[in-house]
TrEMBL record:
The keyword Repeat applies. It is found in: Mitochondrion. PPR repeats lie at residues 130-164, 231-265, 332-366. Keywords: Mitochondrion, Repeat, Transit peptide. This is DYW domain-containing protein. GO terms for molecular function: RNA binding; zinc ion binding.
Amino acid sequence: MLRKINCFFHFPKHVSFSSSSNPCTCQLPLSSFPPSSPYLKSLCSNGQLGEALLEMAFQGPAMKFEGYDALLNECVNQRAIREGQRVHAHMIKTCYLPPVYLWTRLIVLYTKCDSLCDARRVLDEMPERNVVSWTAMITAYCRKGYASEALNLFIQMLRSGTEPNEFTFATVLTSCIGPNGINLGRQVHSFIIKTSFESHVYVGSSLLDMYAKAGRIHEARGVFECLPERDVVLCTAIISGYAQLGLDEEALALFRRLQMEGMSSNYVTYASLLTALSGLAALDHGKQVHNHVIRSQLPSYVVLQNSLIDMYSKCGSLTYSRRIFDSMPERTVISWNAVLVAYSKHGKGNEVVELFELMREENEVQPDNITILAVLSGCSHGGLEEKGLEIFYEMETGRFGVEPEIEHYGCVVDLLGRAGRVSEALDFTKKMPFEPTAAIWGSLLGACRVHLNVEIGDSVGRRLLELEPDNAGNYVILSNLYAYAGRWEAVRALRELMKEKAVIKEPGRSWIELDQILHTFHASDRSHPRREEVSAKVMELSVEFKEAGYVPDLSCVLYDVDEEQKEKILLGHSEKLALAFGLIATPKGVPLRVIKNLRICVDCHNFAKFVSKLKGREVSLRDKNRFHQIVGGICSCGEYW
């Protein structure tokens, strides 16, 4: 008995061609066929895909499930779409009817090779589909960001009568994004509860992640608390959710609780927690976490080392940041950027430039757009406007291999503005190849406030209010400028406009860490247990400092009241309360580290310099923009702020 096969390779000696007019038709005794599957599997396992395809052609209709399975798996491994298409075509040509599993492998192959149209065509042509087939296609849509296609396919799957599993739900939840994403996610959540999958770790993790990314951290916490078992991934996800939303105290409190419950931690947990501690500037807690990392003997993960650099710098300990950076066995561009940003925020312009030059000399990594931003920002905060302009113009010529983006132009505006070259900054803004953003106009308005340029500030401020009518900070800075100029009617008009648009100014708050406890103060705070003592201390310091030359800057008060009342308002600023508490609660000579959620005012900055000079304290003030390291009454900002 003979059979005919089409073949496209050199035949063994015992194969004889027939007298057929087709030169590729040969006759071979059935007994001459070796078992195809083991040989094919061996070729595929050795990565010999080309030889395996020749064997497939040789076997023809004798190909079996095991052979196709081995071939498709190797095509997936090698992302070999053309070879996979040949396998698919061979199935069709030989009238092979693959089981659902092989259909699904074809879907996986096409999706891995970014051919979603082919994958969808396979799914639509399948005579029978199971949950794995549907989930494979839904996953592909989600990974490509095709959220609506993923959700529509999920609905189609439900209508077909196929029951989703935990992987289907976990995947679908990742597509619940955008304006209506949270509502869709809640509907999926309801279905999950009905099908009793809410306690599964994969589903729980995806639910938690969905709510956290939508800013619904309380709903994420509700999911977390209802899970019967919580692994390190879930614990890390909820801590990370709090940290990413700036809810740093909540992240720290939850970590402490979970630690008491015996939670294990990995490097991602610690990196997320360090992000929270960076926001709080809680140095003592940060050191404690660092000790945990050392004791746990985790490998030197670059991401963890980068987080430590960031944490120490934001807690005011630049020395520790540099020490970690210098000890890293491997450094990425993110590592360099982290330490450059650290020096920049501390106003160390010369050190930023030196470090940037070292980076280029060592040639470990190439600078990226964040690198140049950090360098320009460092020059801006350090008063090195000429050096900053030189670096920017070098960037424009392509010397660093990075094209200037709008953020780099914004840095130049900030650079000129901080240096008092406000008119030049405005001209530069007008000549930019980009439309100025609200952030750029905001930087220029801030410069007008610092350098008391009312004319340009008035024009820039009005434009900014059109761009960002709901940003309370813009109203405050413009009000400050008007108050300095004595334009109280304009101040009142701005206040009325804020009421009309329901714009609410974020309350200022400052905090100081003592013995791993964060003490928070609000303006004119009366809630702290030692409030009477703190208020009396502020008054005492004010009297003492005035005798040494301190003059309250009444222009920082945005109310048209008498000078005595303005001075009283200034004494209630949260920065002063935190500094006074630090002087009361710590021994002489201990550095004071105060963090402000907003930008500190000029008067509080001056007050802190007198605390440093007359009380012999090193004062570290961190606001939303930068660090002010004050020693002996001299601030690291050099008044460039």
